[in-house]
Amino acid sequence: MHKKFIALIVASAIAITGISASQARAADVEDILGGLAAIALLGVAVKHFDDERKKNTVTHNYNHIYKAPQKHVHKKPKQRPHHVRPLPERVARYNLPQRCLRKHKGYSPKQRLLGKTCLSKHYKYSKSLPEQCKVGFWDGEKVKRAYHPGCLRQQGYRVSNK
Fold first, then answer.
1. pLDDT, tens digit (0-9, with 9 covering 90-100), for 119-145
2. 3 CB contacts (<8 Å, ≥6 apart)?
3. Does residue 80 sit within a domain?
4. Concatenated DSSP letters for 33-66?
């Protein structure tokens, strides 16, 4: 930008001096045309050097590294009639099987518990259940162990029909 500005000032200075000198000599047409030709030559020279500078400037093209973001099209998975997608393990480990929730002889007839043996058969994380939720009760023959569902619910577990 500065080069163009300086070239414009120099060209206008030459033109003004050429015009004022030609007026002093009775406005010779040849001098006026000569001044205009000089201005044109200066303009061409400035444009040439500006084009050379642009040609030699290094430009960075990052298109080969970064691709333009593409719209993500969600494809529907193939529908299988009886296929149920399993829950991620971090979620599934907190789902307790509903089949283990039953009434036990010797405990409150209105309260259902999750049986320990049933959980060990149908729930692969049964050994990691919290001990404070384990309940012991007498069934008439021996002490049985089960888990209280309300306590497990407070610990983040839920009973599901899986």
1. 889 888 888 888 898 988 888 888 888
2. 46, 49, 50
3. no
4. HHHHHHHHHHHHHHHHHHHHHHHHS-----TTTS
